[in-house]
Amino acid sequence: MKRKIVFVLVLLGLVAAVALVVKMLTNRGPKEGELRVDTNPVAAIFLDNKSLGRAPFRDKVSSGSFTIKLVPDSTTTRLASWEGNIVVGPNLLTYVNADLNESELSTAVDILWLEKISSKQSELSVTTSPDGASVLVDDTTRGVTPISISDITPGDHTVTVTNVGFLTRTLKIRTTPGYRLITTMKLGLSSGGQIPVASPTPTLAANATPTPKTATSSANLPDPAKPFLTVKDTPTGFLRVRMEPSTSATEAARVNPGDKFTILDTQNGWYQIRYDGTNIGWVSGQYVEKVE
Q1: How far apart are CA 256 and CA 46, in angstroms?
Q2: 280 and 288 Cβ atoms separated by less than 8 Å
Q3: Structurally, how many domains does the chain consist of?
Q4: Distance between CA 160 and CA 251 in Å, rounded?
Q5: Chain segment 207-220, per-residue pLDDT in tens
Q6: What is the CATH number of the domain that holds 252?
Q7: Contact in structure between 10 and 2 (CB atoms under 8 Å)
Q8: Half-sphere exposure of 42 (CA within 13 A, CB side)
Q9: Predicted TM-score (pTM) of this structure
Q10: 134-137: strand order across its sheet
Q11: Element (H, E) at 37
C-alpha cells in the first residue's frame, strides 16, 4: 500500500515538473504585437534595418523598441526619407502614419501605441517635435506639449495639435481603461502648399486636417470701406484665418500678403474679416496693418 502511495506521489511530481517546464518554454517564446504603417506616398518600411515590405502594412511583429525607417517611392519628385523610434507592445497595436515630403522639415509623422498602467482609468500622453504645441481634446484646450492627461474618459476622442508655422494635425483616437495611449507627432513645417490627407485606421486613427481654403486675392482690388486691414509679409508666405480669435482655434482659410479686408470686429489683438465674400474668420493683428 505504501509503495502505491509513493508511486502516485512520484507520478504527480513528474506531471507537475513537466507542466512547469512546458510553461517555462512557452513563456520563452517571442511575444508579438501588431504594427500598422500608412504612408503618403507609398514607402518601403525597414525595422532595425530589416525590410518589412511597403506601406500600407499591417502584420504581427516581435514586441519591443525599434528604429523604423520609411523610404518613399517616387518617380517624379525626390522625397526625403524619415527615421524614428517606435514601441510595439505584446498583443497591442502600434500605428505609424506618415506624410512624406521633399524635405524632412515638412514631413509629418504620427505614432500611436498603448502602454499598460496600474490604474483602471485611461490616460493620454501627447508629445510633439517641436514641443510647445497647443493640444485640444474634443475642441477643448488642454495645454501644450509635452502633456499627460489622466482624466480622459474611455472611448473615442478627437485630438487636434497646432503650432505656429506648422501644419495642424487632427487624430481620431480611442482610449482604453487600464492603458495609456501614447501619441508622438513630428509636425511638418507649413509651406503654403496642399496639406496631405492621411489614411484612417479603425481604432487608432490619424488623419491630417483637410486643406484649408485659400481666399481669392484682393491685393489688386480697390480699397474696401474703412477701417480695413492689409495683410503683411509672413514667414510662411500666407496668413492663417482662424474660426476663433486664438492660435489654438481651427484653421478656416489662408489669405495672402497684400490682401485687404474690411474689419468687422476686434478682440484681444485679433481682427474679424469676411475672407471670401461669405464666410467670417479671425486673423492675428501681428501680421496685418490697420488702415483707418
Answers
A1: 41
A2: no
A3: 2
A4: 11
A5: 333 334 455 455 55
A6: 2.30.30.40
A7: no
A8: 6
A9: 0.57
A10: 140-144, 134-137, 155-162, 169-175, 205-208
A11: strand 32-40
